[in-house]
Design a protein that fits this description.
Belongs to the binding-protein-dependent transport system permease family. HisMQ subfamily. It comes from Marinomonas posidonica (strain CECT 7376 / NCIMB 14433 / IVIA-Po-181). It holds the Pfam family BPD_transp_1. It is a multi-pass membrane protein. This is Histidine/lysine/arginine/ornithine transport system permease protein HisM. The protein has a single domain, classed as MetI-like (MetI-like fold, Orthogonal Bundle). It has 12 helices and no strands. The longest helix is centred in the middle third of the chain and has 31 residues. Helices cover 78% and strands 0% of the residues. With 255 residues, it is mainly alpha-helical. The protein starts with a helix and ends with a helix.
Length: 255
């Protein structure tokens, strides 16, 4: 174990000597996929709840396609399938984009994350209290202001626990990035195992790194949820004590 760490601690954390690798690549995949997926899901969630059936069904077809097929298969299509098309190979820009495994991985992860976040946000938008919306309109807010100050903040508060779970799922999904030759944590562990035949140690280190990242994400979301919902007054639960019950009974007897 010590010899393995002495040789591969840098590749596991940030660099293999030539390019970024390990935890640095895993974090880059996670952050880019979550941020880009969330930004794309905002307009799509509005379209998902649109009154026009054509728009609503189009977004539903998109989310059903990417939620109903394995992410691993989507990555293979982006990395191998699309690049095999003559149209893509003949276009210099598309050729250079889909020839890079990192670009294909980020594209597949971002679209898949967008599909899941779109459904979460669309469901939260439906559950926003109609009374708050009517009060905002009566106050004189425009439609844009209502969405900015009332609807989206309330929907985000409702879906925040689901977002934390989705981020951890995306983190675990990054383990298939080695399929596109992306040097994430698991790719480094596989290389270390191939070079040293220390299977348990190599994959054990990778498991510990993923566990640390999962704990940091979970703890960060808990802190953010506490800060973001600090103004919400929680109902007080009354717990009677023996002294309190005695005082109450004595007042009843006096009456």
């Amino acid at each position: 174990m010590i010899e393995l760490l002495q040789t591969y601690w840098k590749p596991f954390l940030y660099s293999d000597g030539y390019n970024y690798s390990g935890m640095a690549i895993t974090l880059w995949l996670l952050i880019f996929s979550v941020v880009s997926g969330f930004l794309m899901s905002i307009p799509l969630s509005l379209a998902r709840n649109a009154k026009m059936p054509a728009i609503r069904w189009s977004v539903q077809a998109f989310t059903t396609l990417f939620r109903g097929t394995p992410l691993y298969l989507q990555l293979l299509i982006c990395y191998s399938g699309i690049y095999s098309l003559r149209l893509v190979q003949d276009q210099p820009l598309l050729n250079s984009f889909f020839r890079d495994g990192m670009n294909c991985t980020l594209l597949a992860f971002s679209i898949n994350t967008c599909a899941y976040m779109c459904e979460m946000l669309a469901g939260a938008l439906k559950n926003v209290d109609a009374g708050e919306v009517e009060a905002a309109k009566a106050f004189g807010m425009s439609k844009f202001q209502v969405y900015r100050h009332i609807i989206f903040p309330a929907a985000f508060k409702q879906s925040l626990p689901q977002y934390s779970n989705e981020v951890i799922i995306v983190l675990h999904s990054t383990t298939i990035a080695f399929t596109a030759t992306v040097a994430d944590i698991l790719k480094v562990a596989r290389d270390a195992n191939s070079a040293t035949y220390m299977t348990f140690q190599s994959f054990g280190i990778a498991a510990i790194l993923y566990l640390i990242l999962s704990f940091v994400i979970f703890y960060g979301f808990k802190k953010f949820e506490t800060y973001y919902t600090a103004h919400i007054v929680k109902p007080h639960t009354y717990r009677p004590t023996m002294l309190g019950l005695f005082e109450k009974m004595r007042k009843v007897v006096r009456k």
